[in-house]
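FORM 7B: Structural annotation worksheet

SECTION A. Query
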Amino acid sequence: MGWLDRLHEDIATARGRDPAAHSNLEILLTYPGIHALLIHRAGHGLWARGYRVSARLLSHLGRALTGIEIHPGATIGRRFFIDHGMGVVIGETAEIGDDCHIFQGVTLGGTSTRREKRHPTLRNGVVVGAGAKIIGAVTIGEHARIGAGAVVVSSVPPDATVVGVPGHIVAFTDRSNDTVQHLPDPGWDRLSELESRLQALEDRLNERVNSLGATTGSNGSVGTGGDARPEARRPDSEVTP
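SECTION B. Predicted structure
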């Protein structure tokens, strides 16, 4: 597939996934994700041919122009869409399948200092929300969804939805009928339980305070707006016989 055909495919992908896109020309001229992919393909070709410094310089230029940093060694499939894109970082050994979609601030990073596979693998159809961090040589299964701001450090099965820090699975999508099966969330359930108990304690405390107020008001020991302190006893010398 030629580079021009890939460009047409990229533009069609952006127009299909972004309702804010109004024309192919607008996408071509103003979408940084499209520009970053074009630069990456050129840099990846140089990288594969052994021109490492030239590839890195081209990647650096792409970062300066688009705010998206893609290492020229990363492998990216077809119909990949970077939405907005600012702050996206894709590491050297990252692998991205077809039809993936990521938003701004996403990091596909590594933890190892060895020259080995140390960045994530995204299977086909993965969606990664804004600000999510996927760290290490983990695999994100087909059509999985990573929530905004999640930090993922372990592999994710297909069709799962992951949220939180650290990321944990909260749902699975049945693609045969597009239904979502939500899983129990012990952490959220515990917070809800604590909130309910706190509210119950506040209600009991308010009832007790109201009850005490009604009691003291009925026996006259506490006047409204007056001094509730008992009168000081005068010295014996001042007592009138």
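SECTION C. Observations
The longest helix spans residues 186-219. The helical segments are 3-17, 24-30, 32-48, 52-66, 186-219.

SECTION D. Sign-off
Analyst initials: ____
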